[in-house]
Amino acid sequence: MQLRGKQKRFLRAEANHLQPLFSVGKNGLTPAWLAQLDGALDKRELIKVSILQNADETTSEVKEFIESQSTIQVVQTIGRVLVLFKVSDLPENRDLSTQVEKI
């Protein structure tokens, strides 16, 4: 699902109270890290990822890697924090995506 402006605005508001669950450190971006991220998004649909100070990657490199290697969408970047959204593969976990579709 390609997100429109109002949908992104809704997701940003929903992510406001969230704390980052994943971080990118000196180990960098790996397929295993992306698989864990994908699994977490199947449960929650909306998470935050922080990029640590000792990471070699920039925010734009992390965003490019995530969007090119998966179906995860970057909703917002705030400094070194990314807000990510993906429609869950499990129908019972699609609470947020059903609300987004109605917008």
From TrEMBL:
The keyword DNA damage does not apply. Coiled coil: none annotated. InterPro entries: RNA-binding_CRM, RNA-binding_domain, RNA-binding_YhbY, YhbY-like_sf. Residues 1-97 form the CRM domain. One of its GO terms (molecular function) is RNA binding. It holds the Pfam family CRS1_YhbY. Keywords: RNA-binding. It comes from the Bacteria. NCBIfam families: RNA_bind_YhbY (TIGR00253). This is CRM domain-containing protein. It comes from Limosilactobacillus equigenerosi DSM 18793 = JCM 14505.
